[in-house]
C-alpha cells in the first residue's frame, strides 16, 4: 500500500501551473496455492495509478485505476474518480456501497486472498460489491447473477465522532451481454444514444459512531434487480449491525445482518487480527442461513504474515467451509507492494 | 491537458545517459448524462503516457499511448510515434488526416463530448478520423463502415506564415474481422506472413496561411475504400475550406466542404467559443446534405465550463439534431486533467 | 533499454518509508515492412513498468509488466515477479526456460524482429518459450500447439565462473479454451476452485562456464505435453550445447541441439553481431531436420542498425527461408527506447 509519490511538484510549479499529480504504485506476489487437489504456482503483478489535485477554492479531486482495468475504466467501471472538501467526499465509478465504506471486510487470509466454496473474507454486503455486480443470489449456491449498472455514486463524511455514508446506482444498464471471455466487459450505461433497460436499482445508507477504541454502526441497503439466470425481478434489502474494537494489539470486527423482502437470509460473521512485532495473524468465521431454501453454510479462514520490510512480506493461509464436496484451500507466498 | 513532467533529468544525466523521458498524465470526469430518456451517472478515468527524446544530431522523437489503448497499441493502432526536426514532424500510428491536423474540430460540448443523432463537434473529415476508420458512409445514416488499415503516416510542417500537412495510409488491411466484443481489436497490417487484402487507400494534403489573428486553409482528401456493410468499393474525395479567426475573447471557426466521386455531399459548419475570466462558453452548428440520397441533417451543440483551477473544471452542455425520432442529449459534470 | 528512473527516493524517505520503486520505460518504432508482396507501414509504442525494492534483511524483490500485457498479468502470465539474494534469483510468471536464461537468442534482425516462414532469431528451446507455450510441434510445420500452464518458476545463480539455471512448470492447466479473438487470454492455473487437468509438465536445467571472453554451456529440457491439435500426449526432451565468444568487436554464438523421445529433430544455429562505432551489423542462420517427418528447413536473417543517440536508432533487415512458397521479408524503420 506504500505508494511511490513522484517528485513532480518542483518541475510543475516552475512552469507556473498547479497541475494535479499522478503517482504510480502496485503490488506483486508469488507462491504456491493448494486448490484442494494440487499445489500450483501462482504469481501476479499489478500497476496502479492514483491522481490527485486541488482546485483554487481548496476542493480536492482525483481518481485511481489499475493498469489491468484500464480498458473497462474508460466506460465508467473498474475505476473511480472523486471530489472532496469540508462537506465530505463524493466518489463515482467502481465504488463500494455505503456499509462497506464504513465497516470494510474481514482480514484477508493468504497471499492470494483465498476464497473457499462458501465464501471469502468479504462481508456479504448487498450493494456495489463483487466488482460492480449486485450479489442478490442465495449465499449457498455461490452464483452471483444480478448485474449492477455502474458507475455508482458514494458519499462519505466524518463529523466529529460520527461517520456517515450513502451510495446509489442510477438504475440503468444497457442491453449488452454481461461477462465475457475472461476479459472485463464494460457494461457502461451513460453511453449516449443507447436504449437503456431498467435492470437494477440500488441504494444504501450507513452510519457509525466512534468512542475511544470502539466503533459501532448500522447500515441499510436496498436492491431491485433482475436475476439474470432466472430472468425474474427481485427486491432484496439488508440491514447490518457492525462493531469494531481495538484491544491492545488485537482488532476484532463483528457483523450481524439480515436480508429480507424476496430473500430471507440471516448472516453472522466475526473476524480478528493481532500484530506481534513483524508478525500478524488473523482470521474470520462466517455463518449464513437461507430460510427460504432451508440451507446454511459456515466458512472460515486463518492466516499469518511476516513483514520483511521494504514493502515485502511472507503470507500464507487456509480457508474451508462445510459445503459438502468442497475441499480446504491453502497458499503460501511472498507479497510485494510498490 | 496539463501533463505531469517527471523530474527525471537529473538522475538520468547523473548516470551519463541521455535517455528519453516518459511523462504520465491523464484525465478524469464524473457527472450525469441525459440520453433523451433518463439521467444517468457517467464517470471515467484515463491514464496516458507521453515519451520524448532527442538524438545526438538534434532530431526529436517520441510517442504517446493511453493505458486503455495499450493492447491495440502493440499492433500499430490507437497510439502514435513521431520523429521531428527542422524539416517538420513525421508521425505514424493512430494519427489524424492532413486537414484535421491543421484545422481541428469544433469546441467540445459537455463534459462527455456529447454527440447527438446527427453528429458531434467533430468536423466530417474523410481520412484517418473516427479512431482509424474511414468515414465513407452517408452522413445521415450514422453508419461508418469503411475500415482504414492503419497505421497511417502524417507529415506536418510550419514555414513562416505557412503550414502544410500530408497524410496517407498504406492501403492494406488483413482479412481479420473488424470490431469485436467491446474490446478494441487490432486490425494491424504489417504483420509479416499475413496475406493482406486491399481494402482502403487514402491520402490527403492540406495547407494554411496565418496573418495576424486569422488563418485560412484548404484541404483535399481521397479515399478508395470498401463499404463493409454493402461489400462494394467506393471512391470518395473531399475538398474543404476552413477559416479561423480570433476576435477579442472569441474564437470562430468555419468549414465548408464537398464530398464527390461516388458520394455527393455538401457540408457546412461553424463553431465558436468565448472566454470570460474562468468561464468559457462555446458551441457549433453543422449542416450536411446528401445529394444522392436527397436527405439532409442539421445538428448543433451548446455548452459552458467553469475553471476551478488546479486542473479541475465544471462543464455541461446540450446537443440535438433534426433527425426525426432523436432526442436532445445533455450532461453536467466535473472534469479533471492530470 | 534505457529505463527512466524516477527521482522518488527523496520524497519517499522524507516520509520515513523505505518503499519499493517503480520505473516507467518503454519502446517505440515506426517504419516500413515488406511482407513478400507489399511494403506496409508498421508502428508501435509500448510502455513498461519495472518495480524493485529491498527487504530489511537485504533480499531484493520486484517485477515487471508491460502496459499492453497488464490484463493477462493479473492471472499470472505475461509478467513476472522475483526475489533475489546471495542464493541467486527466483522468478515466477512469464519467464524463459533455464537454457534460454543462460544462452539467450540470436541477434534481432530488423526493427520489427522479422520472422520468416522457417523461424526467426529465436533459438528453438523446448520450455517456457513462445510467450508461455511449449513448442512441441514439428519445426517444419510452424504450428505450436502444446499449451504450457504458466506461471513458471525460474532460478538463476552465478558462482564465480559458473552460472546455473533451473526452471519448471507446475504441470497443470485449467480447462479453459486457449487462445482467443486477438486478445491475450490468461490460461491461469492456480485459480482456486477450478478443477485442473494435467496437460503439460516441463522442467529444465542448464549450466555455463565462462573463461575470459568465452562461455560454453549445456542445457537439458523435458516436456510432457498434449498436442492440442491432435489431442495426443507426447514426451519431448532436448539437449543443447551452446558457445559464445567475443572476438574484438564481434560476438559469435552457436547452438547445437537434439530433440528426442517422441520427437527426433536435429537443430544447428550460428549467429553473430559486430559493432563499428555507431553501426551494428548482425545476422543468423539456422537449420533444423525432422528425422520423423523426413523434412528439413534452413532460415536466415541479416540486419544492421545505426545509433542516433538519445535512445533512437535506425534499423533494418531481411529474413528468408527455403520453405517453398515463402517469400523474403524485410523492413526499415526507426526504433526508440524510453
Give a written overview of the molecule:
Three copies of one chain form a homotrimer. Chain A has 338 residues and is mainly beta. Chain A has helices spanning 9-14, 70-73, 98-103, and strands at residues 21-34, 39-54, 60-66, 79-85, 88-93, 152-159, 162-168, 201-211, 214-226, 233-247, 250-261, 265-276, 279-290, 295-309, 312-321, 329-337. The interface between A and B is large, with 63 and 50 residues.
* Oligomeric description of these chains: homotrimer
Q: Roughly what is the average pLDDT of chain A, rounded to an integer?
A: 76
Q: What amount of the residues of chain A lies in strands? A: over 45%
Distance between the termini of chain A: 7 Å
What value does the Rg of chain A take, in angstroms? 21 Å
Strand line-up in the sheet with most strands of chain A: 1-2-3-4-5-6-7-8-9-10-11-12-13-14-15-16
Count of separate DSSP helical elements of chain A? 3
Order of helices and strands of chain A: HEEEHEEHEEEEEEEEEEE
**Shape of chain A, please?**
globular
Largest sheet of chain A: 16 strands, antiparallel, barrel
Biggest chain-to-chain interface with counts? A-B, 63 and 50 residues
Share of helical residues of chain A: under 10%
Structural class of chain A: mainly beta
Total beta-strand segments of chain A: 16
Detail the poorly predicted runs of chain A: 1-18, 130-146, 173-199
Amino acid at each position: 500500500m506504500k505508494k511511490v509519490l513522484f517528485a513532480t511538484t518542483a518541475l510543475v510549479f516552475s512552469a507556473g501551473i498547479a497541475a494535479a499529480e499522478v503517482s504510480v504504485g502496485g503490488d506483486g506476489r508469488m507462491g504456491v496455492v493448494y486448490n484442494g487437489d494440487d499445489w500450483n504456482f501462482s504469481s501476479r503483478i499489478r500497476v496502479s495509478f492514483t491522481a490527485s489535485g486541488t482546485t483554487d477554492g481548496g476542493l480536492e479531486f482525483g481518481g485511481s485505476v489499475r493498469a489491468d482495468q484500464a480498458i473497462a475504466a474508460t466506460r465508467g467501471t473498474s475505476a473511480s474518480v472523486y471530489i472532496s472538501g469540508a462537506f465530505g467526499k463524493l466518489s463515482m465509478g467502481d465504488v463500494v456501497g455505503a456499509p462497506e465504506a464504513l465497516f470494510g471486510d474481514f482480514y484477508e487470509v493468504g497471499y492470494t486472498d483465498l476464497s473457499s466454496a462458501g465464501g471469502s473474507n468479504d462481508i456479504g454486503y448487498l450493494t456495489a460489491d463483487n466488482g460492480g455486480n449486485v450479489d442478490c443470489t442465495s449465499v449457498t449456491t455461490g452464483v452471483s447473477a444480478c448485474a449492477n449498472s455502474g458507475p455508482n455514486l458514494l458519499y462519505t463524511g466524518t463529523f466529529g465522532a460520527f461517520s456517515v455514508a450513502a451510495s446509489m446506482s442510477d438504475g440503468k444498464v444497457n442491453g449488452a451481454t454481461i461477462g465475457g471471455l475472461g476479459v472485463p466487459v464494460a457494461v457502461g450505461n451513460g453511453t449516449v444514444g443507447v436504449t437503456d433497460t431498467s435492470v437494477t436499482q440500488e441504494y444504501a445508507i450507513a452510519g457509525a459512531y466512534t468512542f475511544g477504541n470502539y466503533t459501532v454502526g448500522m447500515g441499510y441497503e436496498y436492491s431491485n434487480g433482475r436475476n439474470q439466470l432466472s430472468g425474474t425481478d427481485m427486491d432484496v434489502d439488508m440491514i447490518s449491525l457492525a462493531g469494531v474494537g481495538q484491544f491492545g494489539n488485537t482488532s476484532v470486527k463483528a457483523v450481524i445482518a439480515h436480508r429480507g423482502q424476496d430473500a430471507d437470509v440471516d448472516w453472522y460473521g466475526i473476524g480478528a487480527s493481532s500484530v506481534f512485532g513483524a508478525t500478524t495473524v488473523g482470521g474470520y468465521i462466517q455463518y449464513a442461513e437461507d430460510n427460504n431454501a432451508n440451507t446454511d453454510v459456515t466458512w472460515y479462514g486463518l492466516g499469518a504474515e511476516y513483514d520483511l520490510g521494504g514493502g515485502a512480506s511472507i503470507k500464507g493461509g487456509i480457508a474451508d467451509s462445510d459445503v459438502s464436496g468442497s475441499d480446504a484451500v491453502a497458499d503460501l507466498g511472498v507479497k510485494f507492494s510498490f
